[in-house]
Amino acid sequence: MKLTGVAVSNGIAIGISICVDYKFNIVNYQITKEDITRELKRLENVIIATIDELDYISRELTGNKNQRDILDTHKMILEDPEMISNIKKILQEELVTLEKALDLNLQEIKEQFSEIKDEYFSARIIDYQDVTSRLLKKLYKTESDHENWTGSILVAQEITPSQVLEAYKNHVAGLVSIHGSRKSHSAILARSLLIPMVMGLNDEECDICPQEVIIDGKAGIVIVSPSREEKEKYQENLAEINLKNQELALLADKESITKDGKKVPLFCNIEIPEEIAALERMNIEGIGLFRTEFLYLDRQELPDEEEQFQIYKKVAEKLSPLPVIIRTIDLGGDKIAKSLKEVEMNPNLGLRGIRLSFKYLDLFRVQLRAILRAAMYGNIKIMFPMVSNVSEIVTARNIILECQKELEAGEIEYQREIEIGTMIEIPSAALRAKEIAAKCDFLSIGTNDLVQYTLAVDRNNDLVAEYYNETDPSVLYLIQMVCQSAHEAGIKVAVCGEMASQEKFTSLLLGLGVDELSTSPANYNEIKKKILQLDTKECEKYAVSLL
Prior knowledge:
By secondary structure, the chain is α/β, with parallel strands linked by helices. Helix content is 46%, strand content 13%.
């Protein structure tokens, strides 16, 4: 049986499936007011025990320091006063058992998150499910059995981040999540740890477990009880992939230089700090895009300056002296409606990127001060998202100057000289790239949004997917225009969108004048290999033929 889902993390895995969802028969009966004290004490004890468990798992993750941060997120949820208060309120008002109170609390959180019409943020509910499951397992005294995980395929309704970490530690071959999002913590961790994963099958897991299963993480396919021919085919493919990965790994010490001697700096995009551990063996040249949206997830309150400073500092120190380009918060109003009380009918054309930062200046200043302080510990650069005109760059630069004065007045150390750049994602910015380049130290093209805004095509809408064309002449013309404007201003231009991670576009981008590429970690060595095979003159001819 062949099931089609969402391709989340590349790779092929073959093994026996094991279902790891924990089913609890929630105790549901009325308690008396005299029982409340007992249930509150149980709540206190189970939270302490679960935090101790997370601390133990964190210590056991030897060599995966960054991955431990995800467990800290779960500890933050467990220690959240608002959540604890709500559970206590349910106990006292509904007079139900602690088990039922935990279940009702989770249902309320699910309802709150369901109102957020954004895949990235609605995916955060998985972390709350993970924490609730841990609490219930403690109450029911159940334990997961990891002894038989090695070489298996883990299956669950929704794979949680801690399950991904446990899978990595126990050498699981692959992951299948019946539901879930590519933008979830679980998906990001699977990609950074290079574990093949497929999500969104929309089939019951009982159809999958326990049987032999093949996962094709690149195609988003799960084959249950494969035929001999199918198994042999994928075994051959897996052997080829392993051989290819071994060959690509040998490129780690090679510079990304074309056949005719042109150096093409090659960087990586990351979404969460946990990904850095997997990059160390790849000998990358830096981070071309550090998305900071993760800081605003899984929480009732916005991150303060000190928390952000510590995170940016750790990343900068880890990679120093390599560059780390931090993109300021790139969220639409709908994405953080719970924190900022904004609701929009069309968020893609609304309050997002730099516009949101200008509306919520305190939020922006906190992030900028944290970045300026962290830049003392490494080669950090600042990049602004969704800029549409040069006046926005001028305004943003002035705000940075104000933040520097605030830090100076407080006698707080900060980086006085820091490179500042912008994303080119909106056609209006591309058309005025000459003026924008004059105010920047570098430019980076976000091809995902540039394509969809230029062609008026929602890249996440299957109904118009056929109209989303990265090689449309109008898109290529804008990319070439941006490169020419940047070079006239004496600065470099990179591409950090999806096009940079696909080798079929590498020669085209170099031919259009792109200086640098920033790819997903999984595609880094593949793009480096492609660069080594290219001749820049041939790339330029190819680009001209498509314009």
